[in-house]
Amino acid sequence: xxxPFRTEPLPxxxxxxxxxxxVADLADxxxxxxxxxxxxYGLLIFPxxxxxxxxxxxxxxxxGALEIEITPISNxxxxxxxxxxxxxxxxxxxxxxxxxxxxxxxMPVQAKGAVFTAHVVPGAGxxxxxxxxxxxxxxxxxxxxARVAGRSARHSLRYSQGKVGHAHQAGSAYSGYGMxxxxxxxxxxxxxxxxxxxxxxxIGRHAFGIPGLPxxxxxxxxxxxxxxxxxxxxxxxxxxxxxxxxxxxxRRLMHRACPWDMAIPRVMYHSRIAGDPxxxxxxxx
Length: 285
Hints:
This protein has 285 residues and is α+β, with helices and mostly antiparallel strands. It is built from 7 helices and 15 strands.
């Protein structure tokens, strides 16, 4: 039985553009087909959806309970003014997000995925990159596969933001979600996807402190894994058009924002799909 929408695979190891549907009006049977397509490709791009906030939340909820219902990912304040590039707590997070990462690996339960929509985009820059951690695991050399086998790393937003010069300051607006976790979760470097069964690398900017390795060796290994993972054909860069919507599988893909002239507005909205507390839980390391 053919799917009630058109799927055009991206020229990468993952991802597809999906057209001939309105995601806000999918029948249950059609959504079931879309969910299967999502598991196959990891990233689905829906051009021209122009979702309202309520429609975005309702679409995201079809993938599961939400960790974050909806939040702006934006350098624009509520009054319409553009935030200053230096010293602003929100901009610190935006700049941190320009490093490769998976969402909420620094929380006890890692996110399942996310729905992201574009509302105001710069004329140049501000794209989003994704990288396929299942294909990256498949591409490991035998030597690297042996080095990561059975190993884990701690994950911390406070660590990753501090590493790029944005240290945690208690009591500031910057001390919000994820920054106050005192005991970083310990996550395996290789994790089996709970629905597809594929082994995926679990790395990214929040990862550090591999137990049993000196700090410098731990850092070098994580950097080596990221360099191997995040290159074609395992990466895709999406240039946004207002009205675009995407959904990605956070258990398989890393992502990052691309730089842009931050004097220019960029307004996106993010809904974060909660992970299964059984398959995505990690105890503090």
